[in-house]
Specification:
Helix content is 36%, strand content 26%. The chain is of the alpha+beta class and 74 residues long.
Amino acid sequence: PTQIDVVRLIDGSGSMKGTPLNSALQASAIMFEAAAGKDMNINVYVVIWGDSNPPVIIRPGADRVKVGQAMQSA
């Protein structure tokens, strides 16, 4: 079976504070959950870019609690 890697980059600049950032994070969490469905074979990575070492806040197979914590800290 084919596997697909999806990398979602979220703008981490000051212009994304508040609602825009929260909306992007919510959409990313929904994508992560949808990709975790049976036989999907989709790996979702979510990265917040904006500095020289952008953090990967969601990785394939991540625990839902840790995903939530990463999103809160973003």
